[in-house]
Amino acid sequence: MSMRALVIGGTRNLGPSIVQALLKHGYEVSVFNRGQTADDLPSQVLRLRGDRGVPAQLAAALGEKSFDLVVDTTLYTGREALAALAQFSDRVGRYIFLSTGQVYLVRTGVNRPFREEHYHGSLMARPPESQVDDIRNWLYGIEKREVEDAMALSWKNSRFPFTSLRLPMVNSERDHYDRIYGYFLRLNDGGPILVPAEPGLPLRHVYGADVVEGIVRLAGGDLGTGEAYNIGQDEAVTLEEFLRMLARFAGRPLELVHVPRATLSRAELLPDCSPFSGLWMSALDNSRSKRELGMEYTRLEVYLQKLVSFFESGPRREIPGYRRRQEELEMARNLDLCH
Predict the structure, then answer these.
(1) What is the 8-class DSSP label of residue 254?
(2) Are strands 46-49 and 67-72 parallel, antiparallel or unpaired?
(3) Where are the alpha helices (DSSP H) in 206-315?
(4) Relative to the CA of 71, which of 21, 87, 260, 276 has its CA 20 to 30 Å away?
(5) Residues 6 or more apart from 64 whose CB is under 8 A from it?
(6) Percent helix, strand and coil across the chain, each to the nearest 5
(7) CA dihedral 90, 92, 96, 98 (to 10 degrees)
(8) Whole-angstrom distance, CA of residue 73 vs CA of residue 85
């Protein structure tokens, strides 16, 4: 008898790769989502439609179905977690959900790279209302913590079989934010890339295929039940090191123009002009996942070269993050004239 898996989400970034991996491992796969994003999933995948934010729609779509595995890619709030726990309390063998390294960024008194034991402790106060971006990022971390806390309590009280995978930024061929692709387009047009003048945070991201590998390793047994794992690449590099590597693989020269962050922010060019210059990027210690799950992470230079080859193999795409490129180039010209 085939194992049954449900992927909640399933159409963007990691979703299609998760579905394909589970099919390859012999699962009968269903996906639950609102049906608003076109997908190229195989015809044998059962589509279940509804808004997970409305528990009645989740219940109606699932009916009496039970699953050996649920992979939840779109679990963002404590309210959604409670609805999922009510729905799947005795109808799932494993429940793996994608959390975030941002659960550490709302902590106080901890240093990078964050370890799993850094989760518990005092939290930041809510930022001032004037700091809109900080509030948005703070809420994301706080609400993901609400999810993790609800899952951990359910494990403690009734052994609900969850595992949390805490992710940094995920770089993949299907990244719907097109972050690396935006840098790639700027390299290809031959103009400079605008970056904040001050040193930024080191980049310690993860390749999407490695996240999928972590899910597959957990899917078939009890390994890691009731636990949380950091999933992330080994290397931490500066933004300039990253861009020089990307430029080398793209066969393009790299020109950086350093601009005060406040200037870029006033012009509303961030994050588009340099999405890896954000102030809310986690860096995760991956040693526990390597030790307990046997994870091996793809080297940055290996997956970055794969992404460049992927970009070059397809037609040029127009993306929102590139729409104000002419304003970036004009700012660079004006700064050059001033000097």
Answers:
(1) -
(2) unpaired
(3) 208-219, 239-250, 261-266, 287-293, 300-313
(4) 276
(5) none
(6) 45, 20, 40
(7) -70
(8) 15
Other CB atoms within 10 A of residue 302 CB:
10
Length of the chain: 339
Residues sharing a CB contact under 8 Å with residue 209, sequence separation 6 or more, in sequence order: 17, 172, 298, 303
- Residue 284: DSSP 8-state: B
* Alpha helix stretches (DSSP H) within the chain: 15-24, 55-62, 78-88, 102-105, 132-158, 179-189, 208-219, 239-250, 261-266, 287-293, 300-313, 325-338
Burial pattern 130-156, b for ≥16 Cβ within 10 A else e, equals eeeebeebbbbbbbbbbbbebbbebbe
DSSP 43-79: TTSEEEE--TTSHHHHHHHHTT--EEEEEES---SHH
Q: Tens-of-pLDDT digits for all 339 residues of the chain?
A: 689 999 999 888 899 999 999 999 999 999 999 988 878 899 999 999 999 999 999 999 999 999 999 999 999 999 999 999 999 999 999 999 999 999 999 999 999 999 999 999 999 999 999 999 999 999 999 999 999 999 999 999 999 999 999 999 999 999 999 999 999 999 999 999 999 999 899 999 999 999 999 999 999 889 999 999 999 999 999 999 999 999 999 999 999 999 999 999 999 999 999 999 999 999 999 999 999 999 999 999 999 999 999 999 999 999 999 999 999 999 999 987 665
The DSSP output letter for 114 is B
Strand partners, 284: 114
Q: Tell me the pTM.
A: 0.96
